Amino acid sequence: PKNFPPGPRPLPILGNLLQLDPVNPLKDLERRRYGNVFSLYIGSRPAVVLNGLEVVREALVTHAEEYAGRPTHLLISHLFESKGIVLANYGSSWRDHRRFALTTLRKFGLGKRSMEERILEEVSHICTELESSAGGSMDPQHLFHLTASNIICSLIFGERFEYDDPVILTLIQRLEELTKEAFGPWAMLYEIIPVLRPFPLPFRNILHKFNQMKEHIKKIVTKHKSSRVVGEPRDLLDCYLDQIDKTANGGSTFNDTHMVFLLLDLFMAGTDTTSNTLRSAVLHLMTNQHVQDRCYREITNILEGRADASFEDRHAMPYVQAMIHEVQRMSDTVPLGVFRTTCSDTQLHSYQLPQGTMVIPNLSSVLHEEGQWKFPHEFNPENFLNEVGEFVKPEAFLPFSAGSRVCLGEGLARMELFLVLVTLLRRFQFVWPEDGGVPDFSLIFGGTQSQKPFRLGVHLRSSERG
Ligand code: HEM
Prior knowledge:
By secondary structure, this protein is of the alpha+beta class. About 45% of the residues lie in helices and about 10% in strands.
């Protein structure tokens, strides 16, 4: 289009795909040769990549409404049929469901003491798991996924799963695979060469895994319907069923199909994000004992004589706050946000973006942008502390994105990260195991990124022994 952002010359059919590293395209997307706003062809479709705080903020915050759409042509949009919240296009159904989810999560405790109790109850299960490895090491690959998924499952389905339950272990495994594969090369081929879709190629696996997860959610819904008492909701799912009843005759956007996608959305968005951040946290803490020691001193000092932490305590723990934010910055969990589209013709800097242009907000570029951070490329909580040791949050801290589609679970995620880490650090010391080899901090790219597998060395703090 006329006056479109510049970018590398595309090839027919493939566009610029061959110029992107299929394992991790983040470096290629940060190429500043064309400036902070540049275009890229994914197949025959142009997309615009936004790098750095200034343009990301200009698009997502200053022109929030104009950039609030979601693409409909991606494999992941097909899986979700553009329903639910995360991948729903900007319109009344998205608005109704976002409002419903926020109101209902609050009703079941978000922002209240009851949510803290729910989270602390779940942390006690992680403690039991870790205690059984005290003095040795364990594989934390699924531990934090189980925690995060149990917290969200208790809100939406009113139930938690035991840590060895094969149902939840399978769901978590599918979820981890999906968030990587749906952004991999096969997903790209599915999008750009539609004639390939009927063939038995690896992207059929992605569809199959997603359908398995969907079927599982449908089973939970059926079970719920039979045990439900109308008007006495136990969880978000019951509230949704009540909502369907209330609005049955009025052209409402609430129905069984949307419900399944909303539940999948909350389960998926609420699990892989928080848990990957927690796993990254223990890796950084194990390899930075001085940070762990300073957090421990702050925690024991503030919580002296008390059984549990409260989310309010964060204000009295600037160093712990700084550590958690630094973990989020380095774990870079949702590196490219969730892709947007423009809802109308719009202008960015001097460029014109027609309605329907796909926009990729490179959040990773903001979280490591030189000039925004004291130590952009290393783990250092000082990034969030001022000269007198007070906690400060730089504007470039955007792991939850920004604007009208900012992460709906930010409040829940922040509460989880704080309560889980404070409780664990008070009770355990994490150490790099002797047989752990050399720590590898590189991330496995995907819709959500994660650390490579590692072992977690666990010591019980002396104050906690017998
Ligand atoms: C550390 C944890 C988390 C991170 C880093 C994170 C990050 C993000 C990001 C970057 C987006 C895209 C926003 C945009 O398009 O601009 C998003 C959207 C979303 N997140 Fe989170 N998230 C986290 C936890 C959660 C949790 C716990 C929930 C569950 C309640 C959740 C639910 C959602 C939903 C429903 C959306 C879609 C919002 C919309 O399209 O209107 N997230 N998240």
